[in-house]
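Comment thread on ticket #2218

A.B. wrote:
> Attaching the input chain for the structure job we discussed in standup.
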Amino acid sequence: MPKPRQEAMASPRATGALKPQRRTYSIGELSRLFEVTPRTIRFYEQEGLLAPERRGQTRIYHEKDRVRLKLTLRGKRLGFTLAEIREVIELYDAMPDGNARQLQRMLEILSAKRAEMQARLEDIRLMQQELDEVESRCRSVLEQLDRHDVT
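C.D. wrote:
> Ran it. Output below, let me know if you need it in another format.
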């Protein structure tokens, strides 16, 4: 039997016949990568923030899903609502490199978040002040009771 020629043995990839494979992720890989549970990822999918490909019961996540999950988790850390995250992601999908409308909307959301945080900080400051006052009164009454018990 004659030996096949070396060129005939070249892989389709080497000859450029196949497109390069794009990176995909399983739900387990994404959950480990971002340190979240698979349930969290399924929830974001249910909310329309992720749209994996389906092969039977298996979810196949692409790079776009990885980026969307990253944006979603970052948004949650910054205190964004799911609706705000969805809006930012839709703007990102429409113009991945950013545009004036997308950036302006992001600045509006960030400004609102900053104002909310400032209000919460003020509330916390007032609560601390109130706690200090109650603590001071308690200590004062306790001292008076201790003096009474001594005499």
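A.B. wrote:
> Thanks. Noting for the ticket: The beta strands are 24-25, 53-55, 58-62.
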